[in-house]
């Protein structure tokens, strides 16, 4: 029984790592689509990422920032709540946005 439990834990760990790689890849792809004004493709990648984010995900120091940047760009693309200020929105995230677009 212990061997099966270890195998299940290893599979879960592998899935979390692979999902982080998927988020890394697709977040860069989504940024490129947004920069190149390919908004339909951007939305398609955003939808793929939403399905990955409900699975186990290994977190890195920039994963949360990538997700927040994509959420911000999605709001711009969708034209939602553009005049509202989100109190949880950190200044460092806005600085990160400038770095992505330079």
From TrEMBL:
Record InterPro entries: Telomere_rpt-bd_fac_dimer_sf (IPR036507), TERF2 (IPR030657)
One Gene Ontology molecular-function label: G-rich strand telomeric DNA binding
GO terms classed as biological process: negative regulation of telomere maintenance via recombination; negative regulation of telomeric D-loop disassembly; protection from non-homologous end joining at telomere; protein localization to chromosome, telomeric region; regulation of telomere maintenance via telomerase; telomeric D-loop disassembly; telomeric loop formation
Range of residues in the leader sequence: none
GO-annotated cellular components: shelterin complex
Source taxon at top rank: Eukaryota
Protein name: Uncharacterized protein
Species assigned in the record: Gasterosteus aculeatus aculeatus
